[in-house]
Amino acid sequence: MEKQSLRDINVSGKKVFIRVDYNVPMDKAGNITNDTRIRATLPTLQYLLENKAAIIIGSHLGRPKGQPVPAFSLSPVAKRLSELLGREIQFAPDCIGPVVAGLAQNLQPGQVLLLENLRYHPEEEKNDAKFSAELAGLADIAVNDAFGVSHRAHASVEGITKFIPAVAGLLMEKEITFLGQAVTNPTRPFVAIIGGAKVSDKIGVIDNLLGKVNTLIIGGGMANTFIAAQGYNTGKSLVETDKLELARELIAKAKAKHVNLLLPSDVVVADKFAADARVKTVSVDAIEEDWMALDIGPATSAVYAAALTDARTVVWNGPMGVFELDVFAKGTEAVAQAVARSAAVSIVGGGDSIAALEKTGLAAKISHISTGGGASLEFLEGKVLPGIAALTDK
Ligand SMILES: Nc1ncnc2c1ncn2[C@@H]1O[C@H](COP(=O)(O)OP(=O)(O)O)[C@@H](O)[C@H]1O
Ligand SMILES: O=C(OP(=O)(O)O)[C@H](O)COP(=O)(O)O
């Protein structure tokens, strides 16, 4: 790796601000439903503790839009981290301000302080210099172990590196090494699978991916925009209406580039977003006004599974449906089974994608589980992620 990592510096007796991605899925009651992103940072935290650093942890959770929204508090994460690390974690009521500065100042080597959600402040996402400087003022060194958010030029990810030396954490190092190897010279056929709900964030990635992959499989919420772009009614489905033209261009571009672009031919529709909804499978040209597409249908699953049989490299971000509800999890399960069965080097990334994969029990069959979804897609595109670019060169 061209960037310095924790191993290249001396952290003994230092205060270290570590940016992590603890944006973990939670249920409505506030229980963490998948803690992979927390567990993935333990080697870095243990390394820092063994090397006698005082640790200040910063993270976002969800998208609270610059407001202190209690449902997005990191408090449940503090509890889980304490259990996993087997030691007490101090939890700060905010991420900046005099109280936090006092807690950071008194922090001793071997102690751990978790800050409250960085996105409670709009300055985080604006990459505000004053906010970055205030975070930097808490510590001597910044460590980026938040691969999952390194495609965002945010204050705690990018801005902070302008004020204190910044290096990669051990998770970041692992992600870069693995994804780098897999995507520099992928064994073909190379298949990318994109689904999930962050459509406007990720649809732009498809343009570049069309220059890299042999087959592109689209499912989940992402598929609905493509279904609408083909002129079909999508009822109450999640659709990004301002991306229809882009979706049409992508369909045309795939054709011109001879990329096998696979879109659903059938979908599972429901009359509401709930486990007890009325549910049926319909062809994509038969979605009725008051219904919403919440999973790919069985015919589509079969086509997608067949397209994965001969794959040699697979990158997957975004579930094929609302997998959290069993009735809409079948498409994701079918694709997970096909990826697991194939001989491909497989990379599955993203907070919800990891949760979906673990629900299928097939996680052990995947070559690399990446903590980043959007980040791994942008890395795959060949983009330099701002959070990585900002780290100190070797
Ligand atoms: N057809 C759909 N309509 C609405 N939401 C969907 C649909 N398919 C999947 N989803 C939702 O997408 C979410 C995950 O999307 P995303 O955040 O993009 O994935 P990741 O976290 O893996 O990057 C899941 O919560 C899932 O319920
Ligand atoms: O969950 C995340 O991304 P992902 O859904 O692409 O895996 C990261 O924590 C980034 O979150 P963001 O997309 O709200 O910036």
TrEMBL record:
Protein name, entry field: Phosphoglycerate kinase
Give EC number(s), comma-separated. Answer: 2.7.2.3
Assembly, per entry: Monomer.
A Pfam family annotated for this chain is PGK
Q: Which residues bind (2R)-3-phosphoglycerate?
A: R37, R119, R152
Q: Which domain of life is it from?
A: Bacteria
Q: Which reaction does it catalyse?
A: (2R)-3-phosphoglycerate + ATP = (2R)-3-phospho-glyceroyl phosphate + ADP
Which InterPro entries did the record assign?
Phosphoglycerate_kinase, Phosphoglycerate_kinase_CS, Phosphoglycerate_kinase_N, Phosphoglycerate_kinase_sf
Enumerate the residues binding substrate. D21, Y22, N23, R37, H60, L61, G62, R63, R119, R152
Alphabetical GO CC annotations of the entry are:
cytosol
Chain positions recorded as ATP binding sites:
K202, E324, G350, G351, D352, S353
Q: Where in the cell is it found?
A: Cytoplasm
**HAMAP family, A to Z:** Phosphoglyc_kinase
CDD domains from the UniProt entry: Phosphoglycerate_kinase (cd00318)
One BP annotation, GO: glycolytic process
Key words of the record: ATP-binding, Cytoplasm, Glycolysis, Kinase, Nucleotide-binding, Transferase
MF terms per GO, please? ADP binding; ATP binding; phosphoglycerate kinase activity
Describe the family membership recorded for this protein in Swiss-Prot or TrEMBL.
Belongs to the phosphoglycerate kinase family.
| Pathway(s) per entry | Carbohydrate degradation; glycolysis; pyruvate from D-glyceraldehyde 3-phosphate: step 2/5
